[in-house]
Write a structure and sequence with these properties.
The chain is α/β, with parallel strands linked by helices and 222 residues long. It has 7 helices and 9 strands; from the N terminus they run βββαβαβαααβαβαββ. The longest helix is centred in the C-terminal third of the chain and has 18 residues. The model has no long low-confidence stretch (mean pLDDT 93). The protein binds adenosine-5'-diphosphate and magnesium ion.
């Protein structure tokens, strides 16, 4: 379970800038949440804070009852690697590696990946429709295919929490629709917690709960 309690975020300097104020959010295992808001509203800030990448100025974040910001740096990195899968707007694949090896990257850094990782990576690439592209390098894949490799990579450690930052932001309409459908389907199968931030209502509509990030707070969308 993911729990945010009265989370605030300020950037200091130049008079200070308040981005989030007293944000509460709870996401249970198997739930998916979309957070919408215009550019600059603080979506990425919120996602990084949820993802144990950037601490809140006040309030607490817990993931499966652990507050990652109370861990030392090494334990925090291990926690992130074991518990959280990230999908960014840019796929961030390594250009010199095949699709299969890109999916395996988190298993090299992290400890104790589940089961036979190579087989699991192939299964995941198959699930995202790239079973016939295992040896292709990123330059030999389309934008949508690259993002699908990034989805498989995010799932390789079987994370409890999957976080997506504008995952379809760089794709054309058709590829964006395909990737959005895939995220929904994969989430249903893997039963992780999914948090997607996006300015796209079409993407947000795929998920169970929706919020708008308005005036530094989350407002539930009916
Ligand atoms: P979004 O992802 O919704 O476009 P961001 O979370 O990236 O928005 O940014 C929200 C606001 O916080 C923006 O006004 C941005 O300029 C500001 N901001 C982001 N990162 C920093 C930082 N490291 N220092 C100061 N201000 C920042
Ligand atoms: Mg952003």
């Amino acid at each position: 379970m993911l729990v945010l309690t009265s989370v605030s975020k300020r950037y200091e300097g130049r008079g200070g800038l308040s981005i989030l104020e007293n944000v509460d959010l709870q996401v249970d295992r198997g739930q998916s949440v979309a957070i919408m808001g215009p550019s600059g509203s603080g979506k990425s800030t919120l996602l990084y804070l949820i993802g144990a990448l950037d601490p809140p100025s006040a309030g607490t974040v817990t993931i499966d009852d652990v507050n990652p910001y109370q861990l030392n740096e090494k334990a925090q990195a291990e926690f992130r690697s074991a518990k959280i899968g990230f999908i960014f707007q840019d796929h961030l694949l390594l250009p010199q590696l095949s699709a299969l090896d890109n999916v395996l990257v988190p298993t090299v850094v992290g400890k104790s990946a589940p089961g036979n990782v190579r087989q699991r990576a192939k299964q995941l690439l198959d699930e995202v429709g790239l079973g016939a592209r295992l040896d292709h390098r990123p330059a030999e894949l389309s934008g949508g295919e690259r993002q699908r490799v990034a989805i498989a990579r995010a799932l390789i450690m079987a994370p409890a929490l999957v976080l997506c930052d504008e995952p379809t932001g760089n794709l054309d309409r058709a590829s964006a629709d395909a990737v959005a459908g895939l995220l929904g389907a994969i989430h249903a199968r893997h039963q992780s917690m999914l948090v997607v931030v996006t300015h796209s209502p079409a993407l947000a509509a795929r998920f169970e709960r929706r919020y708008d990030l308005v005036d530094r707070r989350l407002q539930a969308v009916a």
